[in-house]
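Lecture notes, unit on protein representations.

Consider one protein chain, 213 amino acids long.
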Amino acid sequence: MGAKSYVEGYQFSNADSEYFAQFQGCPDATKYPHAYRWYIHIAAIQGIRRLSITPPVVSAAPVAKEAPAKAEKKKKAEEEDNEMDVFGDDDEEGGSGEPKESRKDMLARLKREAEERTAKKEAKQRTLVAIEIKPWGMEQDLMVLWKKITQTVTQEGLKWGEGCNLADVAFGIKKIQTTFTMGVNNSSDDVVEAIQAMEDEVQSVEVTSMNVL
């Protein structure tokens, strides 16, 4: 396994489960320390509390015949010795000489890593906002007003659309339809309030849609 903690990538996957199922027992910690650490770690993730350790191969040699009761007792003791609790004391050390990660620490680490991935994803998230801006009268030059708004209302992370649309309202009055994109640290309410602050030129502002990109 080398220095990798998982078969593929940097987190548990189906590849680990499939590869784990091919083992008949826990690898020898002395001969295969990396495989041993991986095997114990995957067993912990899958909730396997006791593992069978493959006994070492020894050369055949004639032994004295034991009484059935004594032989059965010895066999049971050997089977118990060949089992280990993968959720044992946190202070035990693995085959590599490094302290084993407890189940509590492992779950805390996985939760922390998931939260970090979510935070990074949210930091890159962008939202497209569509708004309608109604002026006070039909004499206003709405293109001049739109340019003034996009040049005046600015924030870090806020980007206005490249153009706008002039739609009929009533009695020859038109309204500005435009869009802007913003990041997670921006607020559409702040943008709307900044536009409405131009009270001599703007009658009202309405958010018509918001879509996460």
